[in-house]
Amino acid sequence: xxxxxxxxxxxxxxxxxxxxxxxxxxxxxxxxxxxxxxxxxxxxxxxxxxxxxxxxxxxxxxxxxxxxxxxxxxxxxxxxxxxxxxxxxxxxxxxxxxxxxxxxxxxxxxxxxxxxxxxxxxxxxxxxxxxxxxxxxxxxxxxxxxxxxxxxxxxxxxxxxxxxxxxxxxxxxxxxxxxxxxxxxxxxxxxxxxxxxxxxxxxxxxxxxxxxxxxxxxxxxxxxxxxxxxxxxxxxxxxxxxxxxxx
Length: 247
Known about the structure:
Uridine Diphospho-n-acetylenolpyruvylglucosamine Reductase, domain 3, globular, alpha+beta, 5-stranded antiparallel β-sheet, 9 helices, 27% strand, 14 strands
């Protein structure tokens, strides 16, 4: 593993100042579960790693919004999401999904922001969050912006985030009356990398469907959603032909 400069700023502003918009060899590191594997294999050789571990409580809290949604700091660990009574109450599909996400050692270290910024289509959470209508709040030296989850991923392990941009929080809107579920197909154990991940969120007036792993990025399936519109979700729906319904 190639030696790198390691810096640990105390604030978001300090962290942003240490990043370089023109140098991909300068990179933030959160939990580091994926990044360290890439470095050990020689796939990625950073010149500087900017640690996000000490950026303050705003990035490590899980809170209910005034509207009844969820605000989750980017440095919240996946194990904390899995165990959170608030997440279980307001978005139980997230907690359920994490029970079979990798293994407990990874979930104890990996963070929400790092999981999403990595852009790996095999991750379990992105399709679930897309189906739930989630968005990110990202910050850079010029300000902040909101990014819908379905617009975050641009290709295999690539996102719309700039080199000097950080995820600050994940927002999950309130969705009273909706039900959501996630299922994945794996070659081995339930916590293995999925060959296909499928998330569905059903409301009174619409159904949202998102997939991951089998495609270059996690994405919604609008044509499938259109085919499901107005139909009762029962066993007879299995006869509906959804081939080619990815667009």
